[in-house]
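User: I've been trying to design a sequence by hand for this structure and keep getting stuck. Would you show me what you'd pick, starting by listing the structure so we're on the same page?

Assistant: Good idea, let's start from the same input. This is the structure you sent:
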């Protein structure tokens, strides 16, 4: 009896159809509906993955017994290509919606057959030439003086076409380059421009968090990342720490931005000051996730910092709007005093020479000091008279 469940070597492989996270392919998917019986109205679409992060969707028009992990031959332009089925059933439609693919404009071809040994051998021979082709193609592009970088080369399963993935800052006229490539490699040439993030996803690697790069494991759509995301989360604007392996800002900076945006809405405005009986406080820093705000008595420098909750800060703001001041910034007291303070004349309350005057304590100490001074003066006069 064939075992359906395989749990060994501490891996994540639960079934051959579902989890299979330790697959050598990038962008793995989990078919969590693999053990649910099929119904008659299911779509015949299947997801097929090729080298690295390239995926496409095909019709299983011949109703082949396809499941996750099966290697198939699919229609291509021209010839045919070989890939591995990564998703089948009703989840394929959900995956298409997630990838924002318009089926009306997307040309969906058919699955030809399940790959046999001859197909796999031909594809292996074609893929073996990819590394040498990439090195040679870079040299040819450099000899033509083109400002571009060949990031990867992928041969079609039947070896009739090669896809060259390149990176360039601007528009590149590679018409002459295509002619040179066609004469050198004797295959049909297709050029595809990719960005720095897509290149990092195709190469793969490990991020500073210790996990595989998001762009090579699950991300299919890349949104722009700005420094405002770092400022919103109070992250130090250190380019070496904010940049990923693609030399761009890390995609993970955007992950918690909605949470911070929602939390920041509760924080008091930076332009509103808190008035208390002891001082005026200016907003110094905020911690949206903790719901705490720190105030300083100096508007430009940290001085007498006090941290309170945003609820307490808003409470003081409401008190100030009523024309009143709380006794202190923190605490649970509710006693407030009016902000309308009458004018007081404080001139003359403190004498500038108050430190020059010595307060007399009175008593025996003063009399003893006067007696000692008198005795010293008498001895001085006697000594002076004897000398004369």
């Amino acid at each position: 009896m064939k075992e359906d469940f395989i749990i060994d070597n501490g891996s994540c492989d639960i079934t051959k159809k579902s989890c299979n996270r330790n697959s050598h392919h990038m962008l793995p998917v989990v078919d969590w509906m693999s053990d649910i019986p099929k119904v008659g109205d299911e779509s015949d679409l299947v997801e097929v993955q090729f080298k690295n992060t390239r995926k496409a969707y095909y019709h299983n028009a011949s109703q082949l017994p396809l499941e996750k992990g099966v290697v198939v031959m699919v229609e291509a332009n021209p010839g045919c290509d070989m890939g591995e089925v990564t998703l089948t059933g009703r989840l394929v439609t959900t995956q298409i919606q997630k990838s924002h693919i318009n089926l009306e404009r997307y040309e969906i071809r058919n699955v030809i057959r399940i790959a046999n040994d001859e197909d796999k051998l031909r594809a292996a021979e074609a893929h073996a030439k990819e590394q040498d082709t990439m090195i040679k193609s870079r040299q040819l592009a450099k000899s033509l003086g083109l400002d571009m970088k060949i990031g990867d080369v992928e041969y079609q399963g039947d070896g009739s076409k090669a896809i060259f993935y390149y990176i360039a800052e601007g528009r590149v006229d590679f018409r002459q380059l295509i002619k040179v490539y066609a004469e050198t490699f004797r295959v049909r040439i297709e050029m595809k421009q990719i960005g720095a993030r897509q290149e990092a996803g195709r190469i793969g690697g490990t991020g500073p968090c210790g996990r595989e790069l998001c762009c090579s494991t699950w991300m299919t759509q890349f949104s722009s990342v700005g420094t405002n995301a770092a400022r919103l989360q109070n992250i130090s604007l250190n380019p070496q720490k904010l940049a990923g392996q693609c030399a761009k800002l890390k995609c993970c900076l955007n992950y918690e931005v909605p949470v911070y945006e929602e939390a920041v809405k509760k924080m008091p405005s930076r332009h509103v000051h808190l008035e208390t009986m002891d001082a005026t406080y200016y907003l110094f820093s905020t911690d949206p996730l903790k719901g705490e705000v720190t105030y300083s008595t100096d508007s430009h420098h940290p001085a007498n910092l006090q941290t309170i909750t945003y609820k307490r800060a808003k409470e003081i703001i409401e008190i100030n709007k009523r024309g009143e001041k709380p006794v202190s910034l923190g605490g649970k007291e509710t006693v407030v005093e009016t902000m309308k303070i009458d004018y007081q004349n404080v001139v003359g309350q403190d004498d500038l020479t108050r430190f020059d005057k010595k307060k007399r304590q009175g008593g025996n100490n003063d009399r003893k000091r006067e007696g000692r001074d008198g005795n010293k003066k008498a001895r001085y006069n006697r000594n002076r008279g004897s000398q004369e």
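That's my pick for every position. To get oriented when you compare it with your attempt: DSSP finds eleven helices and 14 strands in the chain. Residues 5-23, 333-344 have pLDDT under 50 and may be disordered.
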